[in-house]
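Q: What changes when fe (ii) ion is included in the input?
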Amino acid sequence: MKYVENAWYVAGWSSEFTDQPLKVTLLETELVMYRLTDGSVCALRDLCPHKLLPLSMGRVEGDTIQCGYHGTVFNATGHCVRVPGQEIIPKRQCVDTYPVFEQHNIVWVWMGDAALADTDTVFDLPQFNDSNWQAHQGDALHIESNYLNVAENLVDPAHVSFVHPTTLGNAQSEDVPVHVNTDSEQITAWRWIRDAPPVGFFKQLGGFKGHVDRWHYYYLHMPSTAVIDFGSADASLAIAEADREQGMRIFALHFLTPVNATHTIDRWMHIRNRAIDDASIGDRMNELFRIAFDEDKVILEAIQQQETRIAESDNPGPVPLRLAIDKGPNEYRKRIEHLLHG
Ligand code: FES
Ligand SMILES: [Fe+2]
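A: The predicted holo structure follows.
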């Protein structure tokens, strides 16, 4: 399938990269990535141009990687610097390389035209550098579903009451309308549920006794990064929408890596403004996130199976019905189409 290539994608958490070759697949393209002696990470096409053996089966030596078949050596810029047994190095004996950028313990790779790779456009959030907030990594969740299905789920507050009844949603939010803003670079869908019992997440970790005001703001950045700003505050405070800092506020971040047409990796983490010195709270939050995101995974994989079955069938199958509650997802699909086809 076609992907948006001129974009930064997450290749992995920083901890995944060492001085050993790591095979990483993004947009159906296989890369080999490793750390150089200065600590930075490089990305090369995982393909020796000689007999097409994956370079990830070779070994890293200093800043170079040696093919595991005939010992040809490439440097981090993709140039061949040695062909054992011959003096002349053919020009075509080189491999493609990709720009890499590391920030906040996340490694990004640019899959398109390298001349357009601007590190100022890598996703960032001011709270990463704010001592009043604490970042806490979660998992790399593998989902057997197309990344478009996964991304639209992350700008879709309407599913939360039904898919996540014990953690992120409850019955009080079922019929609360969702607002959607499509005026800026990111798509925003949000709603407030005022003066209602706290959902499981905040009951367990926020210590709320009575009713709370709860918010969910979903920000979807093109092509595949989602930020969910959610939280709760005592209903008696009746906080204004702009004063969310006064409550327990959490940013759940999802970095989606499209692997291929039916496989996505969702690396998720959070940044919170409470219990910032208590890592055990971060771990307990992750346990609840794990429950919730596994619930999404079940739904998204089942949807992919239907799509695959219909695509493989000789009979034209049903197509998804677009409802008014799908404004965010619809806008997302439209923007992806625009990025792909102009
Ligand atoms: S296949 Fe890589 S050197 Fe021969
Ligand atoms: Fe969900």
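Observations recorded in class: The chain has a mean pLDDT of 95.
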